[in-house]
Task: structure prediction
Amino acid sequence: MRFNVKVLAGSVLHAVLYLFVFWVISELHGKLVIDKFEGYRNFMNDNIPVFLCTVFGAVFLLFLLVSYAQQKLSKGRIAGILETARFHKLQAADIRLLVYIGVAGTLLFLSVMNLPFVKDNTQDFQSYVDTFSRADSFIYVLIGVGFLAVCFEELLFRGILYNALGRTLPLWATVLITSLVYGYFQPSFWVSVTSVFLSVLYCLVYAKLRSLWSSIIIGSVVNCLIMLTKVWGVHDAMAKLPGFVLLLSAVLSLLFIVFALFILWKGWQPVRPYAVLTGRIGLIVALYYILLQILVVIWDNAVLPRYPGLAEHGIIGLYTNALLSFPMFYFVYKLLYKQNMWKLARFEAVGWKPQLLNVALAICMAIWVMSLFSIPQVKDAAPGFESIVGFFLYQNAWVFFSFFVINSVYKEVLFRALLFNELRSKLPVTAAMIITGILYGILFFSGDLPLTLYGTAGAVIFGMLYIWHRSIWITIVNEYVLFSTYYLIRNQIGLPEGAGLYVLLVASSVGILILLYALYRVRPQAEKTVVRSTHDVQLDA
Result:
């Protein structure tokens, strides 16, 4: 696209004209009508959807007059706003996909709105829902907020602003500026942030399908479902869900939207492998969660009532989860994928020298982690470490060490053999490591952000070890030594205080880097000359 300053200036003035008209009508309606007539003001305050329809309707009529004047004065060189917006008919398949995107967008909004750390820091989302669902009749909400307000917003921001900027600017700049302006006109900060994301989605859909109905359909589905799910009690039900379930729901919703956009722009075939990957990852996560929840219910309702003394030894219940997970995942992979989970994991022998370096690395990692989470400021900012990891560290020594013999194997099979191998079969290794760490944080730490970062750092290190030495034994040994050192530091050795703690943190950091480099250098010879893909590993299995 050729850049022309004169055309750009004209496009900007065109967009600013309509935004100015919108602002003027809003201000005049407020000062000349709302402020002067108490009965009218009270009615509008109690019926926000009617208020929106009134203002947007008046602005829309004035838009038509301005557009007509522009056409006449330019002798037809400036097209009318309805013609420019393009209300073209959509294909049935596109409409279905747009509805699915709207449903996923609704689930993403509700999941984020109810996340504990979101609710604890802002009420913007709840206020947004409460404000725009306020009306004497729910039909006002569906018609006003669910459809008419969406039509007006899309006409203004996509039909007028986007098209005006798009005549000169590249797509990325047009989408960015349109989305920032759209976010600016929202009622609160966090709703504005969310609206910027939604605007990017609307712009990309509109750019591809070239019909304003595309973004109107998504916006209407999102708004209607947000309001309907409040009436149906879904909001209250989701507020009771665990944080990691809501986080997982948000992540999966976002992934679906991304996949849907890829399908819209590129077709199904390029996206299919990633959709299959997402399905396989989703199955692993679902099986993990379902088994764990079943065992939690049994533990709370059948075991503890009969043996209340076990309440202080909840770690014993996790034995069962680890032991039952092995056959469950083994048979799922055997029956569904015709793959041997144990061969996938690569229980190959590792030489004494790499394992010795690995043990030293695990000890340095444990010192680093325990030092970091002993710093008062970090301890206060990440209380989840003490509540979750501390739970294991205060167990009886025999219970702790025997549990981690099983748990180290279980965790590495789950996160390296299954999740990491699945991810790196289709994604770059670095991305696979990071996503594995995020999944670790969601599944084991309920999405706690500091602990998810801790898990992601561990996933990157374990991923490198697993790739370099092509055996799960090296990560299992590291896992076991790591947690054993945690236990000894907490219960036997202890850590220095003050400056000594920072010295230990720096020394262990240097040790980790040196030992990682050493482990890289002593990796098997075949690994030095060729980097094998997970696809090859799975074929070998």
Observations:
- The two ends are 51 Å apart (CA to CA).
- DSSP finds 26 helices and no strands in the chain.
- The longest helix spans residues 268-306.
